[in-house]
Amino acid sequence: MKENGNTDAHEDDVRCVARCKRGDVDAFEILVRRHQKMMLNIAYRMVGNYEEACEIVQDAFVSAHRNIKDFEGRSVFSTWLSSIVINLSRNRIKQMTAKLAHESFSMDDPVATEDGFIRIEPSSGDPSVLDRLEEKQMQEKVQDCIRKLDHDFRAVLVLRDIQGFSYDEIGDVLKLAGGTVKSRLFRARESVRDCLKKALGRL
Amino acid sequence: MQCAEARKRLSDYMDGLLSAEDAALMCSHIAGCRECQGAWSELNKTVGHIRNLEEVEPPAWLTQKVMARVKEEARAEKGIWRKLFHPLHIKLPLEALAAVLIAATALYIFNVTGGELKITGSQPLQVGEQSAPKEDNAVTKSSGTAENKSTRESKNALKKEPARTLRSQVPKTEIASEPALKESGKSAPHQEALASPKGVLPGPPAQGPSVEVERSKAPAGAAAGYGGPVARDEQREEAPMTHAVSPSNEAMTQGRMEGHSMKKAEGAFPSDQITGKTISFALEVDDPVRAVKEVKRVLAKLGGRITATEALPDGTAVTTELDSQRISELFKKLKTVGKIRKKEPPAALHEGTATIKIELLKRP
User: How far apart are CA A92 and CA A100, in angstroms?
Assistant: First the structure.
């Protein structure tokens, strides 16, 4: 998405936000439909749990609507919304980590939903299925390694390498200077690399 | 470019953040360094795996759920607004009227009790530094016993007035008694009135009254003196003050009479002054020095904190802060130290800490 920034989409967001500020609830629905997938994926990669991610996204949108008066229409709506999602995710991670201390709890992988992932049955002998399985397992391992990152590093990695945000956009979302974004990204990538090497024996 | 630097900048290189020159340097270094090549390859694969993570799709119900919550909140907000203010032409006037009534009531109450409130506040209240429960202040400080008697009756007569506030209106009209106005008055203006009382003072309770008058005079102007009993509302006193001196004297007397003093009527303590929160005892002792030690011991036992010790021409004065509830205990113990010039312990003035001045005077 974000490297190029779709100007038309952005302009449209600006118009919708203006209408929302005047109390137009339908305009807000347009914003929800337009941005929900991106927000869900950010949340999902942050917390590692699909259901939790859905909750976070709902809360984020409701919060955005409640505070739409404070949002300056010229700023990028998705950046603002991403901030909300990252903050909510951060809080959820803290809660989940605290919970982990008391229970044996393993974060779920994506749950099969009508529109979500479909779990591949391991027993099938079809080579493409096996490839798929391998890929799936790989993804789980990658997600596990990402999950091991501290949330500050995790956020930078998710926004950059998964969502394709520019360094400036990341700086806006996380309120960080460019240099900090770079160094965090560097360390996050190295950590995941080391983690994967350990898990797979090789990359 | 060295390996260490190359490794550090691989991430930036990958994201196209290096200058053309640095990028070229990096490229050639990697080409020539096996380890850095390995690191570069690993970085690429790692990021590649991350970027390959599949996106998840939002469930179909997500938008609906969000909008349901959003609409609900919007409705709730409107609901409150509606309940409070619609229909506008009925509710607004009603609410405005209610607000006005509340304000008016508050103002009325304030005006009527205003003085009392002020009294407890900042002024160098002499006479009456009344602490909140004025009822407790035994005015009595009043003039001598005789006077007390005479005033007592009138006081008693007036005593039961329910609302102190009423008294303020009452004063001038009601009381007839003369009594000594020894009021030290509450402030400068009262000074004059004070002066006159002197003349008005009935002869008999000579000792008492004159002593009191002196006392009341001694501390600059109004201060000191009487205190309490005449728990007067500033208002009450002020009102009188507006009249000529004599009438105001009377008024003052009246005011005094009405005072909550009732209670204290009996306790005429010529030597006691209850000034707001300060109580004074005077003790006649054979040996003031020894007495001071004993008094300090007593106070320590009762949890009193000694704040000052003052040398007097004929003895010593010890000032202490003590929990008001323990004043009667103190009184009892002081009786064993010397002869108290007083008949009864003052009733508890109020809650909290009281300042007590104990004068230990050598028996003449």
Answer: 12
Output B364 or A68, whichever has higher pLDDT.
A68
How many beta-carbon contacts under 8 Å exist across A and B? 110
The secondary structure of A1-69 as a DSSP string is: -TTT--HHHHHHHHHHHHHHHTT-HHHHHHHHHHHHHHHHHHHHHHHS-HHHHHHHHHHHHHHHHHTGG
Q: Which residue of B has its CA nearest to A157?
A: B50
Please provide residue B332's backbone torsions phi and psi, each rounded to the nearest 5 degrees: -60, -45
- Of residues A62, A113, A192, nearest to B59 (C-beta): A113
* A interface test, pick of B70, B73, B78, B81 with most A CB neighbours within 10 Å: B70
Average pLDDT over residues B355-364: 86
Share of chain B above pLDDT 70, in %: 52
Buried b / exposed e across A162-176, counting CB within 10 Å, b at 16+? Answer: bbebbbebbbbbbeb
pLDDT band at A91 (very low <50, low <70, confident <90, very high): very high
- Using an 8 Å Cβ cutoff, are B239 and B172 in contact? yes
Neighbours of B196 (CB within 10 A): 17
In this structure, the number of other CB atoms found within 10 A of the CB of residue B119 comes to 25
Question: CB neighbours of A157 closer than 8 A, spacing ≥ 6?
Answer: A146, A149, A185, A188, A189, A192, B50
Contact B50 A23 (CB under 8 A): no
Q: Please report which confidence band the pLDDT of residue B183 belongs to, taking 50, 70 and 90 as the band edges.
A: very low
pLDDT (tens digit per residue) in B211-234? 443 444 444 444 444 444 444 444
Q: Is B15 on the interface with A (CB under 8 A)?
A: yes
3-state secondary structure of B181: coil
Q: How far is B235 from chain A (nearest CA, A)?
A: 52
Average pLDDT of A143-162?
Answer: 95
Chain A positions touching B66 (Cβ under 8 A) are 32, 36, 57-58, 61-62
Q: Which of B279, B341, B291, B335 is nearest to B316 (CA)?
A: B291
The pLDDT value recorded for residue B275 is 55
- Alpha-carbon span B19 to A18, nearest angstrom: 40
Residues 6+ apart with CB under 8 A from A13: A31, A34, A76, A77, A78
Q: What is the pLDDT of residue B351?
A: 66
Element (H, E) at A164: none
Instruction: Decide if B258 contacts B170 (C-beta within 8 A).
Output: yes
* Per-residue pLDDT band at A109 (split at 50, 70, 90): very low
Average pLDDT score over chain B:
69
| CA-CA-CA-CA dihedral for A197, A200, A203, B5, to nearest 10 | 0
Provide the shortest C-alpha distance from residue B27 to chain A (in Å): 18
- Residue B85 backbone zone (phi > 0: left; psi -120 to 50: alpha; other: beta): alpha
Radius of gyration for the alpha carbons in chain B, expressed in angstroms and rounded: 40
pLDDT in tens, B41-65: 999 999 999 999 999 999 999 999 9
Neighbouring residues of B325: CB distance < 8 A, sequence distance ≥ 6: B348, B351
